[in-house]
Write a structure and sequence with these properties.
- This protein is mostly beta strands and 136 residues long.
- The protein has a single domain (24-129), classed as HesB-like domain (Hypothetical Protein Aq_1857, Chain: A, Sandwich), CATH 2.60.300.12.
- The chain has helices at residues 28-40, 91-94; strands at 24-26, 47-54, 60-67, 75-79, 82-86, 97-103, 108-113, 117-120, 127-129.
- Strand 4 and strand 5 form a beta hairpin.
- It is globular and about 60 Å long.
- 21% of the residues are buried.
- Belongs to the HesB/IscA family.
């Protein structure tokens, strides 16, 4: 007669989680401009909130506004000494984006170098974005 041992099986070890990618990064010019805006704001702000909204001739546009608080669902990005807060609905559209600041004689604005951007309208005010492809 064969006996089968009911000994304990080794506990499975959870797989180590891979580091979470930073949603966005800033150029030196963008970080400097965010720092300037933060310092001279009329009320206390913790950084800039960045998101994506529907609208415009290409379908979507980037949003940038003062952030007076950090919401529990915000993705907080700290880069070069400043904070940007990313709207959770925009994370997949902004993953891998570099935020820059450009100024010339006619305009000054934040510019998004986004690998998820498919196209943009002629005036540059709106874009078409696809969610980032995440390798699992």
């Amino acid at each position: 007669m064969t006996q089968i041992s009911s000994g304990s099986t080794p506990a499975s070890t959870p797989k180590p989680r891979r580091p979470r990618p930073q949603v966005m990064r800033l150029t030196d010019a963008a970080a400097q401009r965010i720092s300037e805006l933060t310092q001279r704001a009329d009320s206390e702000i913790v950084g800039l909130r960045v998101g994506v909204k529907n609208g415009g001739c290409a379908g979507q546009s980037y949003t940038v506004e003062y952030a007076h608080d950090i919401r529990p669902t915000d993705e907080v990005v700290e880069d070069k000494g400043v904070k940007i807060l990313v709207d959770p609905k925009a994370v997949l559209f902004l993953l891998g984006t570099e935020m820059d600041y450009k100024a010339d004689k006619m305009q000054a604005q934040f510019v998004f170098n986004n690998p998820n951007q498919i196209s943009a309208c002629g005036c540059g005010e709106s874009v078409e974005l696809r969610p980032a492809q995440i390798d699992g």
